[in-house]
Amino acid sequence: MREEDLKKAIEEAWAKRLQVPVDRFVSKERFLIADEAKKGKGEISHLSFEKRTVILYDPKLETVVKSAIEEEDREKLALEKLLHESFSLWKKTSIKYLNPSNYVPYDPPMDFVVRRLNQGDRTAFYRFRNHCTREDLAEGFVELDHVVVFGAFYEEEIVAVSSIIEWDSIADIGIITMPDFRELGLGKAIGSRASEWAIVNKKLIQYRHDVLNYGSLKVSRALGFREYILEQEYTYIG
Description:
Elements: H1 3-17, H2 22-27, E1 30-34, E2 43-48, E3 53-57, H3 62-74, H4 78-86, E4 87-98, E5 112-116, H5 122-130, H6 134-140, E6 148-154, E7 157-167, E8 170-177, H7 186-200, E9 204-210, H8 214-223, E10 225-236
Parallel strand pairs: 1-3, 8-9
Antiparallel strand pairs: 2-3, 2-10, 4-9, 4-10, 5-6, 6-7, 7-8
């Protein structure tokens, strides 16, 4: 796929996700969108694309956000000042995509088997989850009822899982490896299988991770993913 075609597909997918007409999305540099999912939480998501910015905010913060934008139009850096002084940054997420032209398959190391999971693997899957931290489960977000799920087995035990959730045309990949089995290439092996499934099914392949998660960063680079969006999440502190 050509790079410009991938960028166009990303823009079209996000325009649909944000419920903004595509022609309007690609012609404006900044969007302010009240997000009902954030209502009452005092949160803002600041999405930085290559050529535009999207701000999703708690509807209760509309006056605060819009006054900052009006000031921004008169005086540069007003929004940046508002975020720095009145909000606390609690998370930065790198949102990456894989150009199918860059896909390289990875095999699991010796003594491990990677295959697609099904409901017959339910007991082994939940044993695996019990070995994962709450932070791992929140960051990787893998579930047995997702669209497709792959597991890496050591003997009869699942030690790494990759699953996909769909956002319309986007296949969002989650990966978790048990702590004792990291640095073995299992994340690359199961992420590779999930990416292959998405390519075959003509999906836009997405991978998100906390910018401080070095393990996820290494896996994403090895698989050929590239960052196209940076999401910064803030909480209002007044």
